[in-house]
Structure formats: structure tokens, C-alpha cells
Amino acid sequence: MKKRRAIFFDRDGVIVTPILRNGKPTAPWRRDEFQIEVDVHQILSLIGSFGFLRILVTNQPDIAYGHLSPREWRWMQSYIEQLPFDDIFVCFHTRADDCLCKKPKPGMLLEAAKKWHIDLAHSYMIGDTDADAKAAAAAGCKSILVEAPYNKELQSDYKVNCLFDATLLIQNNVL
Ligand SMILES: [Mg+2]
Ligand SMILES: [Zn+2]
């Protein structure tokens, strides 16, 4: 079977507007904090048209930490599920759980690669934190950081201003 290329997306800070608490980017905890970034639906459609699988890989420990209820999380997730992703992988664990899926570990990317026959060396992970860049490196794919005030110091293969610029970068590397 021919292997396919994929774009892996982080959720908070890429697909969903991050909420800054004490200067750190976090997930929304309340419905009035939840906002999907502009043009995400169209950008995902465009990336799909380049032939890439679109896979969300997200750490979501905040239910376990008691910051929001499963009910509130599912309300937000219902909007995420309306976006044109080919698959969604979620790690609900906390650091104390020491699971294999929580980024910066590459577990979710490797699981997706197995399920979808993904060519990781020619795939990309778009994120906003060190965990995303490190998970990409550990999985053997290229990392793209969407620049924000809180990630200026981080290392990655590419840096872009916004999700649309990431799309242009991918398009230029493909065509
Ligand atoms: Mg993030
Ligand atoms: Zn996990």
C-alpha cells in the first residue's frame, strides 16, 4: 500500500484560540472562552486538496485537572468535529500518568501513522509549543511552529506567522 503524507495539527494555539493565564497559553475552560481561529475550515479543506491527511493530535489534561467538566469539553469537541479532519487523537492523561501518548512523546503520531499508513518523513506537525516540536522530531516528521509571544525561544524546523502561512509553506514544499 502506498504511504500517504499527513499534516498533524495541535489544537490549542493552532486550531483554537489559546487562553493566556499567567502568561502561559492554555486551553479554554469555559464556553465563552472557546473560539476556533479564523478560516480554519477553509484552510483544512485547502490542505486536503493538496493530498494530505489532516490529523488532530491534542493533549487535553484539563478534565483530569478539574478545570472543566467532560460535558463542557464535549460541547467544545462537537465544534472541532465539524471541521474537516480525517482523524482526531486525544490524550486525556496528566503528566503523572506517564502515558505514551502525551506530547512531547510521539505516541499519537505513531499510532496515526500505523492506522493510516503515513510517510512520517514527508509529513508535518503544526503546533505552538515545545511539546509539539519535540513530538514531531521524535516521530520523524517536520515541525512548524505558529509564532506567538510565548514561543519565540523555541526550536523547530520552520516558523510561520499563522496557519495560512503554514499552508503556503507546505504548498511550496509539495508542488
Ligand atoms: Mg498548543
Ligand atoms: Zn496520554
CATH superfamily assignment? HAD superfamily/HAD-like
**Biggest sheet, in brief?**
6 strands, parallel
Number of helical regions: 5
| Name of the top-level CATH class | Alpha Beta
List the helices and strands and how they pair.
Elements: E1 6-9, E2 19-21, E3 24-26, H1 40-49, E4 53-59, H2 70-80, E5 87-91, H3 107-116, E6 124-127, H4 130-139, E7 142-146, E8 158-160, H5 163-174
Helix pairs in contact: 1-5
The protein binds magnesium ion and zinc ion.
Structural description of this entry:
There is one protein chain. Helix content is 30%, strand content 19%. It is an alpha/beta fold and 175 residues long. The chain has one domain (6-174): HAD superfamily/HAD-like (Rossmann fold). 35% of the residues are buried.
